[in-house]
Specification:
The protein folds into 2 domains: about 100 residues, 3-Layer(aba) Sandwich (Rossmann fold); about 250 residues, Rossmann fold (3-Layer(aba) Sandwich), CATH 3.40.50.150. Helix 8 links the parallel strand 6 and strand 7. Strands 8-7-6-11-12-14-13 form a 7-stranded mixed sheet, sandwiched between helices. The chain is elongated. By secondary structure, the protein is of the alpha/beta class.
Length: about 350
């Protein structure tokens, strides 16, 4: 059979962001697609090699033009990311008894389903958040949902369980700074910024060198030590980080593009940070919540804790990421030593989402 006669999927309107995304994914699975739009898009046409132009669905010429396109390209499925187009096509296909299948539900129904799944997630984690909070969390379902949705759109390895626990601990955090070592593109930093603002804890500071040498974890297998590090184009993470954190962080958030120890010295000396993106932000110099998620080599994690924990409020929280980690035991060795050496200073601790959470007491 000639390739042009193989069954095809019509993406209409392909100029919609969801349409463009479908086109990208279709290439990964070798799906034959036909891109169409009611508005000419030269860039899209060049990228796809061809762009069919159809009238708007309420134009009298649309049915004939649409059917001709279907016949010409042997279209059997349609992805319609715009509600008006989906609704019209659904009705027209049923009335004409056409052998065409619309992919998925309508965009409006998909949004309702997306919201329902989000709120089901909140219900699933609600009791866990209450438990980690040491009682009933005062976060509303909407607030929990907002944190989950925001973080789900940011690349990173902080899982839902860890994010749920992060939501829980801020209710018992003292006033002070919120500091993160190792931010990559800002998934957990955005959650910290949201929670710090919600509970009026204090300003947030993220520290990350965003450099290949600093990210190389010598204690880990080659896949982590070399493969993942080399996959990044290192000019991207700091910019991606700023884009992801700006909406929630501006005014009470900043960053230092420094290695952890040097960043700590700047923090202690200056107690303020200025950056082109976030402007000027002042800090107290006393940390309420500390998230250590930088290089996981034992020596580096140990150094991070030795540098930063003296600045932690006596009643503050420490989050030590990847306490349970298949690629190395640096965080666990440091965490276990902390649990033993400072047992008398610990109010409670728990492990979840691969991270160790420790609440100290003054």
């Amino acid at each position: 059979m000639d390739a042009t006669q193989e069954p095809a999927t019509l993406v209409f309107p392909a100029s919609h962001p969801d349409g463009r995304e479908y086109l990208e994914v279709s290439r990964e699975r070798d799906e034959r697609v036909v891109a169409a739009s009611s508005v000419w898009d030269a860039g899209l046409a060049t990228h796809e090699g061809e762009l069919a132009v159809l009238p708007y669905v309420d134009d009298p010429e649309f049915p004939a033009r649409f059917l001709a396109l279907v016949q010409q390209h042997n279209i059997t499925r349609i992805y319609a990311p715009v509600a008006a187009a989906y609704s019209w096509l659904e009705r027209f296909i049923a009335e004409q008894s056409l052998s065409l299948r619309l992919i998925g539900s309508s965009p409006i129904k998909r949004e309702i389903e997306r919201f329902d799944r989000l709120m089901a997630k909140v219900s699933f984690w609600r009791a866990f958040i209450d438990q980690c909070a040491g009682g009933k969390s005062d976060l509303s379902d909407i607030e929990i949902a907002a944190a989950f949705r925001m973080s789900s759109h940011i690349y990173g390895e902080s899982n839902e369980q860890k994010i749920a626990a992060m939501m829980a601990i801020f209710a018992s955090a003292p006033k002070g700074d919120v500091v993160e070592v190792g931010s990559l593109v800002g998934k957990s930093a955005a959650v910290l910024a949201l929670l710090a603002r919600r509970y009026n804890i204090g300003n947030v500071l993220a520290i990350d060198p965003w450099q290949a040498a600093a990210a190389t974890q010598h204690d880990s297998p080659e896949t982590v030590r070399v493969g993942l590090v080399n996959e990044w184009r290192w000019d991207v993470p700091p910019q991606d980080f700023a884009v992801n954190t700006y909406p929630i962080g501006f005014g009470s958030f900043n960053y230092l593009q420094q290695e952890s120890v040097h960043g700590c010295e700047i923090f202690k000396k200056e107690k303020s940070v200025h950056s082109p993106t976030f402007g000027h932000v002042d800090y107290e110099g006393r940390i309420a919540v500390m998230h250590i998620d930088g290089n996981h080599d034992y020596a580096q994690v140990k150094q991070d804790c030795e540098s930063w924990l003296p600045l932690l409020d006596p009643n503050g929280w420490l989050i030590l990421d990847d306490y349970v980690w298949v690629h190395g035991d640096g965080p666990k060795r440091v965490g276990d030593a902390l649990l033993q050496e400072r047992a008398g200073d610990i109010e409670r601790s728990f492990e979840c989402g691969k991270a160790l959470f420790i609440k100290f007491r003054g």
